[in-house]
Prior knowledge:
By secondary structure, the chain is mainly alpha-helical.
Amino acid sequence: MDYSFIIYIVGAGIVFVWSMIVQTNLKNKMNKGSQMRAGSGKTANEVVEEMLHAHGVTGILIEHKPGNLTDCYSPKEGKIYLSDSTYGRDTVTAIAVAAHEAGHAVQDHENMMLYEFRQLLAPAAGIASRIGPYIVIAGILLSAYAERNSNGGIGYTISTIGIVVYFIAFLFYLVMLPVERNASTRAYKDMKEFHWVSDDQLSFAHKALRAAGDTYAVALASSAITLIRLLALRGGRGRRR
Length: 241
Ligand SMILES: [Zn+2]
């Protein structure tokens, strides 16, 4: 009986249900917030400009990126992209999202260590999360083949390489969670200080930002489960030799 497989299935199931709850909660909050016009009457663009100015960040352009959820800060281009529902909008959601992205620009400006580390990992992590598991599986298949040819070591080594590759992806999510939470904390602080939204809208915006942060917690949990599963798969093969 492979208990590690049962634990994996149960763990993956829990994460799946959790991700559904988080996604639904986030969607509800974002929708509700997009119906509320911010108490200050300010637009997302104005908020970004004020926030950058308040933290001494200069030379950042704000651009419209058509589509949904396309909001992002690009340190390479020195641009903050705002999506259809954010760019030029004066809703609570638009302001919270824009302030969050401006928060990333401030992190970058202040050379926040975790932010820089995340940027360093980002390109590798994208590839690693996709190919890591395949390398592990290739290693396991190879060790099954090699066992018959009394040379199981190669497959085990390849599996280990796959795990190390996937670990980069896991590390990325591990770093991403506090970076995202920090950008939201910065957004919330400035929303409060500069009164971009009314007081009752503020507590709502806080919940919406938290809900967005939860999606990164789900991503981290999901990559942790995959990593544990890959370790269990490789470990089993290694011992059988
Ligand atoms: Zn972010």
